[in-house]
Amino acid sequence: MQVGPHGSQRTTRPVSAGAAAARTLRLPLPKLEDVTQALLLVALTFYSRGHVGASSFLAPTATRRLSPATPSLVNSGCCRFAPHYQGVDWQDPKVREDFMANLLSVERRFFAAPDVAFDRDSGMTYDGTSLNLTTGGLQSDGLRVFSAASKEALHLSLLAIALQPPQDVDEERRELLPLVYSMDEALEILEKKVSSMEDFDRRFPACGGFLPWFCSRGISNGSCKGLNETFTFIEPKVDSASVLSVPALDNGQMAWAAVALVQVLQKRSSESSRISTLAQRWENRLKRMRATAVNLFYDGPGTGTVRAIATIKNASVDAANNSTNAYNAENYVLWDPFEGEMVVLFIDLMGNWSNYTDPQAEKDKIWNIKAQHVDPVLYNESNNTYVIQEGFWFSAHEQWKTLQLPYLQIPLVHHLFRNGEMARLTFSVVKNLNGLMASVNAPTGFHCDSASGAYCSALGIQSLAEQPILTDHVLTPYGAFPAILIEPAAGLAWYQHMLRMPRAQTALGSIESFLQNGTSVAAMVTWDAKVTSVVAMLGGTGDLVRARMETEGVMDTFVQRVESMYADVFQKPLAQTMKKGESMSARIAELPALPLPADQAMPSEPYHYAMCGCASP
Prior knowledge:
Elements: E1 14-16, H1 37-47, H2 54-58, H3 93-111, E2 128-131, E3 138-144, E4 146-147, H4 149-162, H5 171-174, H6 183-203, E5 214-215, E6 219-220, E7 223-224, E8 235-236, E9 245-247, H7 248-267, H8 273-297, E10 309-312, E11 326-327, H9 341-350, H10 359-371, E12 376-381, E13 384-389, H11 400-404, H12 411-430, E14 440-441, E15 455-456, E16 474-475, H13 481-486, H14 488-499, E17 505-506, E18 509-510, E19 513-515, E20 521-522, E21 524-526, H15 531-537, H16 542-552, H17 555-575, H18 584-590
Parallel strand pairs: 1-12
Antiparallel strand pairs: 2-3, 2-21, 4-5, 5-8, 6-7, 9-10, 10-11, 12-13, 14-15, 16-19, 17-18, 19-20
Helix pairs in contact: 4-7, 4-15, 6-8, 7-8, 7-9, 7-16, 10-17, 12-18
C-alpha cells in the first residue's frame, strides 16, 4: 500500500456487523476433465532442476508426526487433506501440530522448490507462478521471474525461523522446523542470495543495499530472463521511462527480516566456519542498509515524512555518501500505521542520522505526523463492543508488521489487534462468508479495482475501512494469518475452512484466492498469499527481532514509540470497555475466544483438482 498525502480527522464511529450489504457474484465455469497424478510429477520434474539439490527440496526432510486418524496423508500422495480435519478440536496442540505438518509438507513444494519459488542460480525469489486452471499443475509459461523486497522479506523470515536452535522454539513448533528447510538447504540458499545482493549493491550503489523490483535471472531484450536463458545477475525491473526507484514499504519488511536472520546466524556462528562466514556477510548487508536508509527514504530536514518510493537520479552514486541523489518524485509518503510503519521504525531505531543536527526532533516529527493517521472505530456485535484500529481497507495484509516485529508483546497493542481479529472473523460468520479477505490477485473472470482488474486491493470490511470496499466476495486463505498469530486455534480453523473450498488445495499448496460461491479461483501461487500464513504458523519473527533490539538497546524505544502512538488514541476508548482498576493483561485474559467458522457444507462445484485427490475422510 502506498499511502498518499491525504489528511484525516480522528473520529470514533459505531458500526455493526451488518453495516455493509453482501453482494453475490456467480461466474459459472464448465466442468473440466480430471487428470492423473502423473501430470504433477512431470510438471515438478520439469521445474525442479539445478544447483540447489532440487530433488531434496521436493522430498520429505523428516518423519512426519501425523494424526492416527489421518495416517500419512501427504506421504501417500494426498494434497487435499483439509477435509480430514473437519470437526477436530483445534484447541488440542497435537491436532494443530499434525495439521501444520501435513500443510508444510505440501507448501514446501512451493517455498522450497528452486525454479518455482526462487531462482536456482541467484537464490532470489520469484513473485510466484501461474497454475493450469484445468489441472491445478504448474503452467509451463506461467513463471513470474521478477520479484521485490517484500518477497525477500518472507523468504528471509522463513529461513531465519528454520535455522533457529531447536531449544529456542516452543514444543508445539519445534518438530515442524525440519519440515521447512534443512540446515544445508537454508545455508545454500542464503549463500547464493547474499552473493546476488552483494553484486547488485556493487553495480547499483545508489540503492544502498536495498532492492527495487528486480528480474531474478537478469534481463534480455528488455524483459526478465526465463529459465531457458543463461543466468547473468539480478537486474532492476524498470518502467518504460527507465527510472530506477526503490519502494520503502517493501524494503522496510526486508530490512527487519535481515535483522531476524542475523540474530539467528550470529547465535549459531560458533557451530561452523560456514555459518560464521555467512553471519558476517549478512551482518554487512544489514550494516549497509542501516547506513543508507535515512538518505534514501527520509524526505529531509524538518519534513517529518518518509517517502514511499525513492526515485534515483544517478545509479552509480553511493547512497551512504549522498542524501540528494534520491528524491520523492510522486510526493507519496508513508504515514500509515500498517505495513509502511516498518520502514519508519527501521529508520528511527537503526538508521544513521549523523547528517542531522537534531535527529531526535526529526524522529519525533515523523511520529507526530503518523499519530494523526491512527483512527479508532467501534465494532458492535452480540451486545459486545470492540475498539478497533480503523483500516485503510481493513485487509488482513495490513497486519504484516505483526508478523515480523514484536508488536504483540505490548499488552495494549495485543488487545487492540486481537479486537481487530475478533471483528474480522465475526464479520465473516455473520455474513456467512466462506473465508476471510485480504488484498490479493483476482479469481479468473472477476474484475477488481486495479487498472487491469487483475488485482483486488480494496478487500476488507467497509464499516472498519477508511477507503471504499468494492466487494466482499473475493476470499483468500492468507486472510487468516493475523488470527493464526494471535490465537492459533481459531486462525488454523479458518485456514482449514478455506482450504475445503473447490480447488483451494493444489499440488503446490493453497490457492491464491477464490470466489465466495466457489465458481472461480485465481490459478496461481505467490509468496504474499502463501508464505505469510506459513510464517504465522511458525510464530513469526517477533522474538528474534526483539532479541536483536535488546542487544542494540532499542527495544524500550520501540515499545515507547508504538505504545505512545496507540495509547494517545485508544487508551480512553479501551478503558471504557474494561472494569475499573482492571489491567490490560487481565482484560486480555478475560476476552472471549475468537469465533470459529460455522461447521457447514462447502460448495463442491465445479470440481476439485484430481491430482490432489485423497480418500474420503
